[in-house]
Amino acid sequence: MTATTFTAKDVQELRQRTGAGMMDCKKALEETAGNTEKAAEYLRAKGIAKAEKKAGRTASEGQIGSYIHHNGKVGVLVEVNCETDFAAKNADFKELVKEIALHIASAAPLAVNKESIPEAVVEKERRIYEQQVRESGKPENLVAKIVDGKVEAYYRQVVLLSQEWIRDPKKTIGDLVKEASAKMGENIVVRRFVRYHMGQE
After folding, report:
1. Could you tell me the CA-to-CA distances from 188 to 31, 98, 106, 178, 181 in Å, in that order?
2. Confidence at residue 10, expressed as pLDDT on a 0 to 100 scale
3. Cβ–Cβ under 8 Å, residues 61 and 88
4. Highest averaged pLDDT of the listed ranges 84-88, 163-167, 184-188
5. Domain spanning 8-48: which superfamily?
6. What is the pTM (predicted TM-score) of this model?
7. Superfamily name with CATH number, domain 61-112+159-197
């Protein structure tokens, strides 16, 4: 018999992240030798991860959260949607909205998701990276792959859902939203935000 490579805490965390049942999470971790990322993919592939199923449902309720930094120089408004008014009044949902507003104030993302970054901006970044890579003397057959990697890194810097959460860099804001969705049993969507910084456009 193989030794257990995961703990009860791992099972609980996977359960919170995916919304799957305890036994399903345990089996997924057994099948993937305790690798949480692979276990989450396993559950999704089996159709057990509930958060993914909710993604297509309409989210028309929710809250507009706000955050003003203590020095009064940075302010954020963010709209986070869910499916029902009941969930919008839930303490966990309110906490999620608050955390996202605080994160936006601190991390200054440019857009909610990759699709919201103008194509012209991405192409400009791509051209700059390509020039940098070519000037560094990398082999021609590797240029495109390296540039793609740099573009993905750019997304992780400027896209809200791809950014590492300021409180826990092991999670992205996208992970945080999925966990909340699984826990509350509703589709949760970060719709839009605006960040004001004194003296900046």
Report:
1. 29, 14, 22, 8, 6
2. 85
3. yes
4. 163-167
5. Ubiquitin-associated (UBA) domain (1.10.8.10)
6. 0.68
7. Elongation factor Ts, dimerisation domain (3.30.479.20)
